[in-house]
Amino acid sequence: MKRFTDITKYQVYFEGLIQEERKAEMDFHLNEILLLTGRQREQKGRALLTLSGRDAGTGIGGVYLVKLVRGSGLPDNEISNGDVVIVSKDKPTGKEEQATVVGKTKRSITIAYNKVPPYLVYGKNLRLDLFSNDITFQRMIDAIKQLNQLPILQEYIKANIAFNQEKVIDPNLTIDGAFLNPKQMNIIQKAFASNDIFLIHGPPGTGKTTTLSYLIKSFFESGKKILVTAPSNTAVDNILEKLQALKIPSTRIGNPVRMDEDLLNLSLDVQLQDHPDYQQANGIWNKIQILKKEQDDYIPASGQNRRGLSDQKIVQLASAKKSYRGIQNSKIRKMARWIKIQQEINRNYEEAQALQTQAIESILEKSAVICSTNSTAGSELLKDIIFDIVCIDEATQSTEPEALIPLVKGRKWVLAGDHQQLPPTVKAREASSLSISLFERFQQELPEDRIDILTIQYRMHQEIMRFSNDRFYQNQLKAHPSVKHHTLLDLPGFESFPYINPKIEEVVKATKPIVFIPCTEGLEEQLADSYSFFNQAEIQLTKEITDALLSSRLFPADIGIISPYDQQVSRLKSALRDYHIEIKSIDGFQGREKEVIIISLVRSNQEGNIGFLRDYRRLNVALTRAKRKLVIIGNPKTLESDPTYKALIENISIQ
Ligand SMILES: Nc1ncnc2c1ncn2[C@@H]1O[C@H](COP(=O)(O)OP(=O)(O)OP(=O)(O)O)[C@@H](O)[C@H]1O
């Protein structure tokens, strides 16, 4: 980890890494554009097809605006304001002029060009491609700059721990913690008492998110304003669900399309619908639509029509019933009427905008707790809000500059995470040091009184936890008595039925909480246009084990199937199409749990090449999702070339 004594050097260093990552992101999109069809990329939310473009005038700073419309409406997509996009007629080459998204509606997207736009953008049947999710990069750079106003945070980044002071636990602090264990209570007390930073290290299933939510409750009850963030929408929803259960009034900001449906009532968008100012603004928007229709009966005062005449002059000529430079008076009058309506539209537009802003501000001002992803914390909506406390969950999955986006908005900070689980995703090889999170920097540099670890886990049978505990947590983890020996047999209705294949029957038998199933007959395969792998024999085996588990009366919702490879995940999904079982990548399963987890490891080759399975943090996440039974499928001959996998397989077979 690189250390800094000068914050300017820190800023320059991270800005450089962000630029590398930005470049890699563009390469990623270009690669995907080459690999996938337009339709496939549209399904991923990174392209929009069959658009028609038209001139939308100029915008702030003289940029050229183009509005791209699809009458039938745009599909769900991940393109947002501030993103860099390219427009093409067929498949883009990457050499197209880049534009920035400045506005989006259900049917249109408006983009801004710095130069005169290429002529083709005014045509039909256009394709728009996301080229870089630039907004997050810009927010990171802004956050790094804002560090200048936060001397305390600077000192911590420099590991200048002169700020270390004895903390006094508030004797009046009451925590509604009948549910919590003493360690969780103690962590809440310490984090509450901290003047600046506190880190909660939460190994799998130890109640990191639970503890954080009770801490937020204590802050809320003491009248503080709190920003709660996490790197992904799923992780934000995860903590929001807990805050809701604790009846802490919270507002979720972000795109409702990416939120959990059950939590939508907490979103800013839904809360706005009930706000009187917003309703009034909606009435005005409707009026604007009517005015626009009325305008269609007259002649637009466009550059070509007005021939250099000002609005004022056109109105004057109209009332004086005069023609001018060959423009007949009837035409001048129609333009004057058009201008009058336009002026009314503008007045209404401003009024509606002001009411809408007022409504948003009043909701955000009243909300004690605001939740968003790290990136959205940098949005305009929160521009003028300073929070007493910023809490980041899953902080070890955020790059350092990404974590700074929410942190610079607060004056006291709590970060929860586990550096032994998945690190932040970094695309550029040159920016690989971004994969060390700010949590890790603080964990290494801060005095001990700023960090504590949760050690009792409430998820796994003790045998499921054993390997991870030994490898990654120095055997500090303890299984709570309520889960230590729990098995499938304790689940109501479960009965391990005889199964046609005795080997599979042995697997399903509830007595063994963790089993490794060798699958040597299958070979890993790869499609020509993909970097991902799949293994047909493992898919077959997974299906058979799932059938056996279901015939033992386990519910589909109790089973999770995970694999490190996207190709395997999508093939498993189609092989088990009607099973209603959650099938995800390991990365997609971080933070989740199921009674039974089946892992398909896929790799099977003569060379003993295990690719990115070698990232043991990914293995750790995979191994720690199951509560009562973990089934691992893999080719031991390939896997055992790696000492950690070898130890894992041996460890399971002696249990
Ligand atoms: N003190 C407690 N008593 C009983 N159950 C608890 C306690 N604390 C947490 N739990 C339960 O343990 C499970 C895991 O909790 P939580 O999701 O907060 O853990 P986590 O550390 O965030 O997990 P992950 O490894 O997925 O990040 C949940 O079902 C939660 O209700």
Automatic annotation (TrEMBL):
UniProt-listed SUPFAM superfamilies: P-loop containing nucleoside triphosphate hydrolases
Primary localisation category: cytoplasm
The enzyme's E.C. designation: 3.6.4.12
Domain Helicase ATP-binding: residue ranges: 176-454
Tagged with keyword Ion transport: no
Subcellular location: Cytoplasm
Enzyme class: hydrolase
GO MF annotation list: 5'-3' DNA helicase activity; ATP binding; DNA binding; hydrolase activity; RNA binding
Descriptive protein name: DNA helicase
Classification of source organism: Bacteria, Pseudomonadati, Bacteroidota, Cytophagia, Cytophagales
